[in-house]
Amino acid sequence: MAGKSPWPTWEVFVRPRRGVDHVHVGTVHATDAQHAIENARDLYTRRSEGVSVWVVRSTDITASDPDERGTLFDPALDKVFRQPTDYELPPDVANM
Amino acid sequence: MTSSPLLTYVLRQGDRSMVLAQRLLENVAHAPEIEEELALANVALDLLGQTRALYTYAGEIEGSGHDEDHFAFWRSPADFLNPRLVEQPNGDFAHLIVRQLLHDAFSAAYWEAASRSIDQTIAELASKAVKECSYHLRHSRGWLVRLGDGTNESHDRAQAALDALWPFTDELFERDGVEDELVARGVAPDPAALRLLWTETVNAALEEATLAVPATQPAVTGGRRGEHGPELATLLTEMQVLARAHPGASW
């Protein structure tokens, strides 16, 4: 078995049951999209974990840069006004 | 072993899936990719599951208390009634896929028809097996097309495997007194009807894979009467050695 696969990688998303979102479960090697579905079926739904599978070429996903984590996400930490708990309900409102 | 047409018939089916499962399991750790490794092992375990149910049923028909292990581990090559196609030794990956395709086109059609058997045990088994075998066919057909319609080398290897295995396909549809009786009773599907479905499936797959139907006439038979090549004895020796070294052991 070759160390590095000549086949491209595909990201696999499985929907565990009806009404629930597809969740990323992992990656497979495959020659084409249909082949990727079959490999994903054999690797990730053997114990009937899913009712639907999506695959997408890994290269088609644009990911955020981990080094930019601070710039992208940290500013949200101290903005308490973005949290619902920062607001007092007017007394006239019973429930919200 | 006391024999009846139904017992012979059930063993023919069980031995077919047993021997092919063993051939696939010999290949474990030799697949071209980890994903394909899993896929082939899944197919092998499905076939083994079908075998277990068929052997258990064979024990009930026989009525002498033999369990599934008896039929797998304590019979001689001449007692095995599988068609010779499935005992053909592993070659390259194309050979494995072609053997699988020729078998899967049969088993998918077989179990679909067997789900209408008047024999309740066979019909129930078929309702599970038909889903498994139609997936097996989808897997082997996908690979056949990928190889046949791939590079020059993969095409030539697939065609060579097809030419080598083609003579063994006739036996899948052989009919003797056993089938005559069980077809008449509505227990077994008619081999001639299966052959039509098989031919349609295989021809369409070969065409998409740009492979030629071999000109050689299918000829080699006898497996379903216990006549096998020496390769089956080698396969069974390896499969049975542990059970025979430790009789009665459980694992």
Descriptive account of the structure:
The complex is a heterodimer of chains A (96) and B (251). By secondary structure, chain A is α+β, with helices and mostly antiparallel strands. Helix content of chain A is 18%, strand content 21%. Chain A has a three-stranded antiparallel sheet with strand order 2-1-3. The mean pLDDT of chain A is 86. The longest helix of chain B is centred in the N-terminal third of the chain and has 29 residues, at 34-62. Chain B is built from nine helices and no strands. Chain B is globular, with a radius of gyration of 18 Å. Chain B has helices at residues 5-26, 34-62, 68-73, 93-114, 120-148, 152-165, 177-184, 191-208, 230-245. Chain B has a single domain (5-212, 221-245), classed as Ferritin, CATH 1.20.1260. With 251 residues, chain B is mainly α. At the A-B interface, helix 1 of A face helix 2 and helix 5 of B.
What is the topological layout?
The complex is a heterodimer of chains A (96) and B (251).
Chain A (H helix, E strand, L loop, with lengths): L8 E7 L7 E7 L3 H12 L7 E6 L11 H5 L23
Antiparallel strand pairs in A: 1-2, 1-3
Chain B lengths: L4 H22 L7 H29 L5 H6 L19 H22 L5 H29 L3 H14 L11 H8 L6 H18 L21 H16 L6
Helix pairs in contact in B: 1-2, 1-7, 2-5, 4-5, 4-6, 4-8
Summarize the entry for a quick read.
The complex is a heterodimer of chains A (96) and B (251). With 96 residues, chain A is of the alpha+beta class.
Order of helices and strands of chain A: EEHEH
The general outline of chain A is elongated
CATH architecture of chain B: Up-down Bundle
Mean pLDDT of chain A: 86
Strand line-up of the largest beta sheet of chain A? 2-1-3
- Domain count of chain B: the total is 1
What's the total helix number of chain A? 2
Largest sheet of chain A: 3 strands, antiparallel
Total of helices of chain B = 9
CATH homologous superfamily designation of chain B: Ferritin, core subunit, four-helix bundle
